[in-house]
Fold this protein.
Amino acid sequence: MPGPLKSKIGIVACSGEELPEGTITRLAALRVLHELRPHETVTICLPLFLAGGEDERAFARVHPTITLDGCDLRCAARATAMYSAPPAASIVVTDLVAAHGLGQPQGRRRLNQAGRQGVDAAAAHVAALVDQILGRTTNGTAATSESRTEVDPGRGAPDTRPASGERVAGK
């Protein structure tokens, strides 16, 4: 695919509003989109994706995606796999919070300190995965994250063991 979208990675965040972890996914996705990797990422609207938005689905068929789910229901990851292609990486915030030893996130509109730390951890992890998928290097070495995943250069999909809080290729 020619043009500037070739190297874009779609971020699909949870739309659940009943849990603080859903808020964490959306805030982390926005931080990656606006601050950490603004030229490398786009967001994919999960409700539009589910309602049949063909532009959203077509993008996710062609480009790697990273899904951010608030809980183990994994709605974003399942929808992406069902209507487009398996995500290149999938993060479950409840697992990520536990792996980082953070307290219980609370508040859906105003997150407590543990929730804000969850946003920081999720955004940093997604940014590292973006770098990994794009094959970016840091100080002459391949970019890494807390994940032990390796990137398949064909689609950019990681294909080995995920770290806690991350699901890879439907596993």
Summary: Confidence is low (pLDDT under 50) at residues 139-164, 167-171. The CA atoms of residues 10 and 65 lie 4 Å apart. Residues 113-134 form the longest helix (22 residues). The chain is about 40% helix and 15% strand.
